[in-house]
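tool=predict chain=A
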Amino acid sequence: MTTLGLLAGLTLLLGLVAWRAREFLTCFEPISAEPRPAPRLPAVTVVIPARNEAANIARCVRSVLAQDYPALRVVVVDDNSTDATPQILAALAAADPRLSVVRGRPLPPGWTGKNFALAQAAPYLHGEWVLFLDADTWLEPGAIRAAVLYAAERHLGLLSLVPRQHLLSFWERVLQPVVLLVIALALPLRRMADPRHPRVAYANGQFLLVRRAAYEKVGGHAARRDAVVEDCALARAVKQAGYRVQLADGRALAHIRMYRGLGELWEGWSKNSFLSAGRRLRNVALLLLAVTAVCFAPPWLALSEARALLAGGGAETVLLTAVALLQVAGVLYLGWRCLREVGVPAWFTLALPLGALLFNALLCYSAYRVLSGRGVAWKGRVYVP
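tool=predict ok
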């Protein structure tokens, strides 16, 4: 293929990526944290699974207990923690009767740890809504009120929010934006809210609000006991049951710091990435090709054409060099916009190629772990999907 053909194909790809990025940034309605009067607020049970979450659990639980919500019950399932999580939870429960701590039973065969922990909270549910939170999430004071009112006004069966990301370490800022951008570009945004596509649904288990009636109708987490990506499985089931499902911008309501350091990033994303790609090597190949083309092809072509220009190239070389440089500028702008959305300093745009290399490596590793039967590892456990 000629350089002109490569540039033309890459221009089309970058145009598609830019269009999808713009669609993602404008598709999700942000939910405001501004307090609003409500004649009646239905009871909500907040369920938080916790396994070795001593670094996070106090902040999460305190942010829930500090909500300006009258009818609130909090259930934390301690999933056989071996750190200080049980002691922290005991102190929190002693200070507030709204908090119940459930000591999780040993994990039985055929279950993933998070699903089994959440299923054990079923006897403690009450009220109209259930809010599932990850232990590394924390909330603004009016978050639950705002989310419940938003879901009720739109007659939703399930509302999931995208929290504000807190990326503090070097490796978080290098890898996490690339992963989040790939997820954003891969989501079938328009079909997610379309009832004509009942199997197309996406949810974020970091903040997942579901009607209790819908949750119980689809069998809760017990009905998808072996699902590693349990949030999406639950969203699909709720949508297939005839309820409306929505993913919204919750950055004004909730915060999260998912991973600390490269080790946690690698384990966390390699657990999900191949399964999220539908367990299909074709999808893996397309993702690898797209990420490589977007992050590496423009600078390579720009350098190649610049060398040809310095060697005495003519008008065609000048034009090709200009087009290649415009593509590099486009990639840098896309990276900058992505980094700005997650609060990462702009100069990390220059680290996009490193983040792309890491993403490609963990995607291949995730596929290898699943296809070889070795399973995926998470918090000291290995699951074979």
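The domain at 28-276 is CATH 3.90.550.10 (Spore Coat Polysaccharide Biosynthesis Protein SpsA; Chain A). Residues 281-310 form the longest helix (30 residues).
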